[in-house]
Amino acid sequence: MTPSIINVVSATQVGEYKIHLCFDDGTAQDVDFGSFLTRAQHPEIRAYLAQDHFAAFKVAHGELVWGDYDLCFPVIDLYKNQIEKHTVLEAVA
User: Count H helices, E strands: the chain?
Assistant: First the structure.
């Protein structure tokens, strides 16, 4: 069962676009953002393909964020390691 409130407590880059996340309930995930970034069409998201830009993430208020929330993901999606939601869109196309 997923807790009602989940917070990211730490984040460490462990691969080119992979971040090891620890949550306040003891759960940990290695989330790979590579596919999301390479599939992105928007240039402001694709900018995070630059390693120095990608590596500038931080944990703020229980969330993983880049910049001033320039890029962020719902914590529940990080917790479930499901940051891409394209399967429904592919089925429609």
Answer: 5, 6
Single pTM value for the model: 0.86
| 36-66 pLDDT, tens digit each | 999 999 999 999 999 999 999 999 999 999 9
- Residue pointed to by tokens 């995930």: 29
As a whole number of angstroms, the distance between CA 56 and CA 70 comes to: 11
Residues 6+ apart with CB under 8 A from 62: 6, 7, 8, 9, 24, 75
At 23, which CATH number?
Answer: 3.30.2020.10
Domain count, the chain: 1
Cβ–Cβ under 8 Å, residues 38 and 48: no
